[in-house]
């Protein structure tokens, strides 16, 4: 009778441990998603700032170009357009790279759940120590 109870308790502990590991993996994935979203928001903000700066540059150079001649204005607009295209290309490349990193993180977490749980636990301990100070 006691052996059956001990066996049930052991099975219950194993199920609880598995549930805790699964929860830790979900939390790790959620943190990765949040960091990914934060990076995208930051990138979008930087792009918006860059666009405003380019527009200001175009406007300022337009005023200078009116005084100096129309040829300078066309050259500045061409350079700004080229810079704009380069920023769009960099944005799309960075977005693709971040997407690939996210997919790799999720795949690694699924392939190595114990390692993921260990890393999450270690990160929690380090954050706990840092937060106390």
Describe this protein with a few key phrases:
133 residues
Largest sheet: none
Radius of gyration: 27 Å
Note the total helix count. 3
- Estimate the mean pLDDT confidence: 79
Order of helices and strands: HHH
Report the structural category: mainly alpha
Note the beta-strand portion. Answer: under 5%
Query: Termini distance?
Result: 51 Å
Helix content: over 70%
List unreliable stretches of 5+ residues.
none
The geometry reads as rod-shaped
Number of domains: 1
Total number of beta strands: 0
What's the structural blueprint in terms of helices and strands?
Layout: H1 2-68, H2 70-111, H3 113-132
Helix pairs in contact: 1-2, 1-3, 2-3
What does the model show?
The chain is built from 3 helices and no strands. It has 133 residues and is mainly alpha-helical. The protein has one domain. The longest helix has 67 residues, at 2-68. The radius of gyration is 27 Å and the shape is rod-shaped. The two termini are 51 Å apart.
Summarize the structure.
By secondary structure, the chain is mostly helical. Helix content is about 95%, strand content about 0%.
């Amino acid at each position: 009778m006691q052996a059956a109870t001990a066996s049930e308790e052991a099975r219950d502990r194993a199920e609880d441990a598995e549930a805790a590991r699964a929860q830790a993996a979900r939390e790790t994935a959620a943190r990765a998603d949040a960091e990914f979203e934060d990076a995208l928001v930051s990138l979008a903000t930087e792009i918006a700032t860059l666009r405003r700066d380019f527009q200001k540059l175009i406007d300022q150079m337009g005023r200078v170009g009116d005084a100096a001649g129309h040829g300078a204005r066309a050259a500045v607009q061409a350079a700004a357009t080229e810079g704009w295209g380069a920023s769009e290309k960099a944005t799309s490349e960075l977005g693709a790279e971040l997407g690939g990193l996210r997919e790799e993180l999720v795949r690694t977490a699924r392939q190595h759940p114990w390692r993921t749980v260990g890393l999450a636990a270690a990160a929690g301990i380090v954050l706990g120590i840092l937060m106390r100070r």
